[in-house]
Structure formats: structure tokens, C-alpha cells
Design goal:
With about 190 residues, the chain is of the alpha/beta class. It is built from 7 helices and 8 strands; from the N terminus they run E-H-H-E-H-E-E-E-H-E-H-E-H-E-H. It has a 6-stranded parallel beta sheet, with helices on both faces. A two-stranded antiparallel sheet has the order 4-5.
Length: about 190
């Protein structure tokens, strides 16, 4: 992982994509450790987390995370998830935050030297290219070791630097005691 101590860095986190990658890798992120890692590598200017929320649910499993992030130095960008019924009658949810992330990245790019994108979504390749055309470096954080890989090949190739989440796990994962008690099987 290569950063310059004087460069201004912002983290852009595609929440759904990052969650899928860490779930596939089998660990949970300690977001405080994540911030500390990038703050020690460079001048961390901003950390943005993007997620869609289901508004009509009494309790969302995302709500505690969103609240914690909001109170702990993250800018959280949300929008309501849309619910629909597919052709087979199953209720589905959709809440893509790609446009919001891309607009914010382009808006903040003039004030940054390096953007760190936490997503493996190939749709972001053109965003990465546009930011690079403005003289900025872009690192992509996702995973190649999952089956299938969580990062699109075209996005990984476009990035100035690819960082595999699996390599960051020992630094940014939550400790087992913080995960709460595990259920113990009894015979």
C-alpha cells in the first residue's frame, strides 16, 4: 500500500459492495481502525460511506452502523431503498448509490491528491479514469481472493493501485471479543 505522507486523501466507500466483500472474506471491519490506517499513511481529509436504507422497516440492521459512522468522523450518504416485486412474485430491494458516490468524488477531487475507492464495481472504471485525467491518484480497495473475485478486472486495471481487502484484514478487522458472544452448539 503506497501513499505519500503529505497527500490529501479521501475514502469513498460503496457500503453494499464493501459489505459483500468482507462477508465473502469472513470478517467484519472495525471502522475506527480503518480511519486510523489511512490517517497514518497520509492526510485523511474525508471518509464518505454510501448506503441505501429501507425506510418503512421499524428496525434496520444498517441503522446502528450508520449512526455510529455519523458520530465518528464519517460523512454518511443515504437514500431510501426502493422495494418492488419481481416477475416471480418475490419482494426485492434496490438501492444503488453509484451516482451519488461518483458526483461527490468529482466534486471533491480538486481538493484532493488521492482518492481511495472501496468498491469492485466495474461501473466505476470511467469515474476512476476521469479523476486520473485531473491529475489525481486513485486506489481501489476490493478483493481478488474471493470466489468469484469481488473486483471487476477493468476497474483493477484502471486504478493506480489495487489494495486487496484480504491483506488489510489483520489491520482493520474487528477483534473476536468485539463481535459479541458466539452461539455454542450443545449436544
Amino acid at each position: 500500500m503506497h501513499f505519500y505522507a503529505t497527500e490529501r486523501v479521501a475514502l469513498f466507500i460503496d457500503g453494499a459492495n464493501l459489505h459483500a466483500a468482507t462477508k465473502s472474506l469472513g470478517f467484519d471491519i472495525d471502522f475506527k481502525r480503518l480511519l486510523a490506517l489511512f490517517a497514518e499513511k497520509a492526510r485523511l481529509v474525508r471518509a464518505l460511506y454510501y448506503t441505501a436504507l429501507v425506510e418503512d422497516q421499524e428496525f434496520s440492521s444498517l441503522r446502528p452502523l450508520v449512526d455510529w459512522l455519523t458520530y465518528n468522523a464519517f460523512t454518511v450518504v443515504t437514500k431510501p431503498a426502493k422495494t418492488f416485486t419481481d416477475v416471480e412474485g418475490r419482494r426485492k430491494m434496490k438501492g444503488n448509490m453509484d451516482v451519488e458516490l461518483a458526483v461527490d468524488a468529482m466534486r471533491l477531487a480538486p481538493h484532493l491528491d488521492h482518492i481511495v475507492l472501496f468498491s469492485g464495481d466495474g461501473d466505476f472504471r470511467s469515474l476512476v479514469a476521469a479523476i486520473q485525467e485531473r491529475g489525481k491518484r486513485v486506489s481501489v480497495v476490493s478483493s481478488l481472493v474471493t470466489q468469484p473475485p469481488m473486483v471487476a478486472d477493468e476497474l483493477r486495471r484502471q486504478a493506480d493501485q489495487f489494495i486487496d481487502l484480504a491483506e488489510l484484514e489483520p489491520i482493520i478487522s474487528r477483534d473476536a471479543p468485539q463481535r459479541g458472544p458466539r452461539a455454542v452448539a450443545t449436544a
